[in-house]
Amino acid sequence: MRKHTRLLIFVVVLVAVAVLLTGCPPRGEEPSPQQKQEAKQEAEKPGEEKSPEPNAAQMMEDQAPNGCVSCHRKKDDKDYRLSAEVKNIEGHPQVKEDATLKDCIQCHGHESERPFRTILHRIHLVEGEHYLEKYDKNCINCHRVSEEGEVTVKGLEEQ
């Protein structure tokens, strides 16, 4: 009888190990040391906080159908165009009066030192009291979501 008990325990352990091994997904490829360093540097940039996850209410009403230029325009005696906004940034080169998001992306693309998406999300979602109060951090003011669920930036759809 002891022999049967040992055999039963052996089979149970063997099955448990097999289940554990087949149930665990394979490990993904480890990032290279350079990729790890770049990720660490990106995470440590001051003022580059991750933007908060949107909730359903933030993706409902589109108050800015034309994206940036819906808000960043001349209104009465105030100029909120991108060309006027960059004048407040020390050391920023002048841009043409009718500059658009496409112009900004020329220098502030995804691979640049200061990607526009990071700058904009920080200004509007983390630091921007005006955007919080007036637009409730609504994603749809700047982004479009297609029927297939693809998210694009208004003004950059054809890129």
UniProtKB/TrEMBL annotation:
Cited SUPFAM superfamilies: Multiheme cytochromes
Q: Region Disordered: what ranges?
A: 25-72
What's this protein's name? Uncharacterized protein
The record's annotation in InterPro entries points to:
Multihaem_cyt_sf
Q: What domain of life is recorded for the organism?
A: Bacteria
Compositionally biased region (Basic and acidic residues): 37-52
